[in-house]
Amino acid sequence: MHVMDWIFKPWPWYITGPLIASVMGLLLFFGRTFGMSSNLRTFCAIGGAGKYSSFFNLRWRDYLWSLTLVLGSVIGGYIAVTFLSDGSISTINPTTISELNDLGFSNVGHSLVPDEFYGLKAVTSFKGLSLLIIGGLLVGFGTRYAGGCTSGHAITGLSSLQKPSLIAVIGFFLGGLITVNFILPYIV
Amino acid sequence: MKLLKFLLVGIFFGIVLVKSEAVSWYRIYEMFRFQSFHMYGIIGTAIGTGILFLQLSKRFKVNSLNGKQLSVPLKDRGFARYILGGTIFGFGWALIGACPGPMYILVGTGVMSMLIVLAAATFGTFIYGMLRDKLPH
After folding, report:
1. With contacts defined as CB-CB under 8 Å, which chain A residues touch B100?
2. Residue of A7, A15, A16 to mutate when probing chain B, most B C-beta within 10 A
3. Relative orientation angle of helices B4-19 and A64-83, to the nearest 10 degrees
């Protein structure tokens, strides 16, 4: 296959995993740490949350580098879908697809997120909006309580062989497994 | 100029996460149903490469741009905060199919309703800040 064709297809895990590690490596080389959820705390600080809790008393300008990283990742997302994709359908396991069809999901893998969660109809329904808000609250609360998210604990923490990060990642999977296997089928 | 390198790394990160499909809700679902190796392959090779990188940079005493030896800050000791916070995070991660990095990136791909999730996540962090002294750590 021509290399340019390959660029427009989804990239394999054995290429993208090491590339994600290189993001961590570059940031460490710049003297910073890879952690995407810390920005949520910075958002709170910018919004004036320091008036309510000393946890948010930080000079947000010190985190301008991280906010810039966030801006870059938004731009990267735009570039990837606009210029680097051919609209290939994701090769989701057929078992997963039929399972999700049974749960009421259609066009599984045709987009990055299901319309059943993120489409206009879902977002303007009470249930759909509630699910997004509850999910967001859990992620925002949990990540700060645990002191990091997938980038800070799973990638950076485990790469540096830290026990707290291993405990956190076990928690990530415990919560995820419970949600997908025992909760999701009853709420969608 | 100081910030430009972070913008570029961010752009690279956004592209890689979209092209790897790590930002796909379906991939996260599939992972938690153990129906595909894809996400485990990404996370596994990322950690493997990360370990190798950090071990080598330690052995060869690589310095970061600020002149100090390249190192990862140590997490505080503890158990409760990691297992409880981690599990709460996992509940949300699996439900919305995105952790904080992918949330930003998906906004860039045009999923505007993710802004609702991001606002809720910011508020979740605010709630943590308010309750922090009362929680076991």
Report:
1. 36-37, 39-40, 139, 143, 149-151
2. A16
3. 40
CB A144 within 8 A of CB B128: yes
Between B7, B24, B122, which is nearest A71 by CB?
B7
Q: What is the pLDDT of residues B3-42, one digit of tens each?
A: 999 999 999 999 999 999 999 999 999 999 999 999 999 9
B chain contacts of residue A130, beta-carbon cutoff 8 Å? none
Alpha-carbon gap, residue A48 to A68, rounded angstroms: 20
Give just the sign of the alpha carbon dihedral B76, B119, B20, A186: positive
As a residue count, chain A comes to 188
Which amino acid type is present at position B125?
Answer: T
- Mean pLDDT of the A21-27 span: 98
Stated length of chain B? 137
Question: CB–CB of B39/A155 below 8 Å?
Answer: no
pLDDT tens, position by position, A55-97: 999 999 999 999 999 999 999 999 999 999 998 889 999 999 9
Cβ <8 Å between A132 and B108:
no
* Token pair recorded at residue B79: 């158990």
A168: contact with B, CB 8 A cutoff? yes
- What is the interface pTM, i.e. ipTM, of the complex? 0.97
Does the beta-carbon distance from B99 to A36 stay under 8 Å? yes
Contact A120, A132 (CB under 8 A): no
Alpha helices in B1-137 (DSSP H): 4-19, 25-32, 38-59, 80-96, 100-108, 114-131
Tokens 């296959």, residue located: A1
How big is the A-B interface in CB pairs under 8 Å? 492
Q: Which amino acid is at B1?
A: M
The CA distances from residue B34 to A48, A173, A180, B31, B91, in Å, are 42, 11, 11, 5, 17
pTM value surpassing 0.80: yes
Amino acid letter for position A119: G
